[in-house]
Amino acid sequence: MTEEAEVPQREGVWDQGSYWYLATRKSEFEQLSKEWKELGVKIDGMLNDIPAHFKTLVHGDAKTENVFVSNSINDDGLMGVAMYDFQYVGFGSGMKDVVYFLATSVYGMTPDYETEVLEFYWNRLQSALQRRSDMRDISRAYTLEVMNHHFELCLIDWLRFMNGWGFWGDATYVKSRVSDIRKRNNW
Q: Taking the model in full, what pTM does it have?
């Protein structure tokens, strides 16, 4: 990974995935306090600066209403999952979908459960990347720490959007976690 990978462009896919990124939510942005506007711009810049080799296609609206779950178990002991409603698909951090799903569709989240879910996700992602010879360098570089950092940036960005649009999902947990992240980073 000595050269910066280019984000591939595909017809029919947004340059940036999700419906809540800053450039598409100017009216919500105007509702924010000065402090949140400054933080929102900072976090948006950090998300946009994530290296292209760490970006993927994001669904952009990954909530339970857009997920089908099979009632059968595969050989790995997991259920099959399929998604629909792809109007917001585009490039970005895969953590956008993870944050959105957890923040809107899982209630009663705790820091311990968040850690468990993210570690499970990271292990499954690493396993999938290792099976592809063209992804092994990315797999080694995309450490759990890198993924957790991206998760935290996306969590702050999600709260920034909700601060201007309205709160839903497990907003209490999101606010608490973002408060902790901000304190730890002096943001």
A: 0.89
Phi, psi of 88 (to 5 degrees): -110, 20
Neighbours of 129 (CB within 10 A): 16
C-alpha 90/C-alpha 77 separation (Å) is 30
pLDDT tens sequence across 145-183: 999 999 999 999 999 999 999 999 999 999 999 999 999
Q: Side chain identity at 98, as an amino acid letter?
A: V
Helix (H, G, I), strand (E, B) or coil at 111: helix
Other Cβ atoms within 10 Å of 115 Cβ, number: 12
Rg (alpha carbons) of the chain, rounded to whole number: 17
* DSSP assignment of 119-172: HHHHHHHHHHHHTSGGGHHHHHHS-HHHHHHHHHHHHHHHHHHHHHH---SSHH
Q: Please give the structure tokens belonging to residue 139.
A: 């797999």
DSSP 3-state assignment of 108? coil
Residues 6+ positions from 143 with CB-CB distance below 8 Å = none
